[in-house]
Amino acid sequence: MKLHEYQARDLLAANGVATTRGRVASTPAEARAIAQELGGKVVVKAQIHAGGRGKGRLVAQSETAAMYRNLTTDPDNYSGKVKGDRIGGVRLADTVDEAEAAASAILGKHLVSIQTGPEGKLVKNVLVAEQTDIAKEYYLAAIIDGMQGSPLIMASAEGGQEIEVVAHNNPEAIVRLPVSAAAGYDPYVGRTLAARLGLAGDHADQFGKIVQGLYKTLLATDASLVEINPLALTEDGRVVAVDAKLTVDDNALFRHKDLEALRDKDEEDPLEIKAQELGVANFIKLEGNIGCVVNGAGLAMATMDTIKLAGGQPANFLDIGTVNDPQRVVSALSVILDDPSVKAILVNIFGGMARVDIIAQGVIDAHRQMKIDVPVVMRLIGTNLAEGEKLVEESGLPLIRANGLAEAAQKAVAAAGAR
Ligand code: GDP
Ligand code: MN
Question: Could you give all domains of the chain from N- to C-terminal order, each with its CATH number?
Fold first, then answer.
């Protein structure tokens, strides 16, 4: 689960990271009032679940795809700027009037950045924060490194909007330091990183406190990523977080009711939300037109590969899990059928602990409970196959049967293509 910048910065601040003062606003008048409180010189920032806002552009919903094309093919002529005539989703305002005008230009529009995709994202809120005089921009992040099974701190003296370019062209410019979860945080980590980034004296001390706070935030929120980019060294010698990004590990959300309350469902895929609500945990929406119902994550991956091999595109990843409950199959099919791009469904079940007859019963129940107006291809094998076959035959439903995975994928692709 991703958080908005204004939520992430509050969590960082609560764990001891120096941030700028600021608050979120949903109307231009509120933005003006906050700017007034902060003394007038502020930065007004669109709050969406995507980065690249500074270089993004605000447009009407009907123009997002065209703007996305422009930004990706001709960034020099289209990228937004924080100040000047081509301003984007992050704007510097020097007076309360400018702050109000910036908020009114951002709110209610769609922000398109290279990270939003062609649909852009509707901006419902802006963060109004005190403006920082930035002398130098650093990059700082903490992640859970799955390969090492350990937290990892990453930092670079070349932070800011070009960090992806740095990561690609000059990866040595990003310093990586693992932190042993068992031993815990040691101030040595912050000191080492500061030295590698060329920070000394008081700057290094401030930086070390921020690294420690960042690490604390990672653990306290069960985040998979906490990122500060840029971490600014100000003209008056302060080290302060100017941006914040935080992703909570979904598998840990059950023990963070306070974080769950920060969820912004408008930013998430409606099909994935429905799947979660129905207890269909492992559903991920994709771009294709063949809906997949599979038991087991590995088999689900293999099913998607085989569909591609047969010349088709999966509409989703779905692992229904090892559950002997026909209702789970009904729920899964109801999520898939909500997707207007689905033109055929492939049910691929390898019965082990999960029984073929129960899955087959689920498909039959779904046909009785809902209108399924796309062809359903079924490949069943494993435990209680004979019982499952019998149920399918007796049901008289127009299910397309397939014997192997390759045959099932080909039949699904053909069925989808015929529509
Ligand atoms: P992002 O583009 O979505 O990553 O949004 P950021 O919050 O990182 O803002 C983009 C850029 O705007 C930063 O890299 C800074 O260069 C600039 N920026 C943001 N806030 C301030 C500020 O308070 N003062 C100055 N001078 N620049 C800022
Ligand atoms: Mn940023």
Answer: 22-130 (3.30.1490.20), 134-260 (3.30.470.20), 269-417 (3.40.50.261)
